[in-house]
Amino acid sequence: MIRINCPICGTRDESEFTYGGDATVRRPAMEEDAPGPWLDYVFMRDNPRGPHREFWHHVQGCRQWLVLDRNTLTHEIGTCFLARDAA
Q: Is Nucleotide-binding one of the keywords UniProt gives this record (predicted)?
């Protein structure tokens, strides 16, 4: 069982959250007109084994988007902060 420490609500069970995707992917500039960068942004994802930064949505709590570090091998949770604070 994964327990996530939401900065607003405190520690909660993972069942209150939904996975939102890879938080390391960067959107291409709006002026980018080559299809390659957009293809990579929309469809291409790594399948990391070990530490990974991810988006999670607290749908059954404060409804905030979070960025957290999770080890995909052990499910150990590292730092967690609000996505709006990530720049």
A: no
